[in-house]
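Before the break, one more example. Copy the sequence into your notebook; we will annotate it together after we see the structure.
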Amino acid sequence: MKIRLFLSAFAFVIASSSCTKDIDFDLNEEQERIVVDALITNVKQKHLIRITKTTTFFKTYVDAPAAENANVVVSDGTNTYLCIEETPGHYYTAELAFEADKNYSLTIDYEGTTYTANDYMNSTIEIDTIRTTESEEFSFQSGQEELLASVIMEAQESPGLGDHYLWKLQVKKPDTAYKDLSPTYRDWTFSSDEFVDGRSPVDGWPIFERIPTSEIVSGSTVRVQMFGISKGYYDFLDGLGKQVFRGGLFDGPPANISSNFDNGALGYFVAASERIAFTTKE
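Here is what the structure looks like once it is written out:
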């Protein structure tokens, strides 16, 4: 019986090993493309246009490879603004404030190809005030009720559908520098005016929620940036969200997000008016 059992196990090992085969996958290496992350606003500052390059499937980088020595120009149709490469792939305008209610174009000449994008800088609403609140909410991470903070904005929305907004959040605790609580796309808040058109919600706009109270302690300065963005950029962010927050059984295959650049460049050129508001946590 022991010999039979041994022979059976030996036969299983031989059969398993004989089924092993190396398979080489022929992965198509798509042509290298540039990726553009560009934002200009009506706030006086040096505006950044960051240009990187895509890589093949098997290459990994801590940072995406920079697209160096490009010629980068912003224009409003009348004036042109040359951008200077201060570090590899990082191109800056001079310190200036772009005017709202104008169409802007970004032109990039890189390695013999010209890429162009356009975006309209809409005016945006005023922020009346911002405030913080705290409430007990169930935490899926801890499995119990926790005290969490929210940031609420008071504002009067302009009548007429078609406005789109983006918010970012920074907090400065006493005796510390500002901490960016919205460092990546996943942490941003963006919305259309579909449900608030022309109104000032009684309870305000809850623009950031479920923030650990350890991030906004007494004496903290809360800084909110609000951007009036185009519908095109809103659709880009919405499409990005559908790709990032995926993984369900019935999700479709991933695809490149639409861009406002021609000639196959990825990313988006954003022209957005900006409002900044502050509050102090008591």
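Helices lie at 2-18, 231-244. The chain has two helices and 15 strands. Try to locate both features in your own notes.
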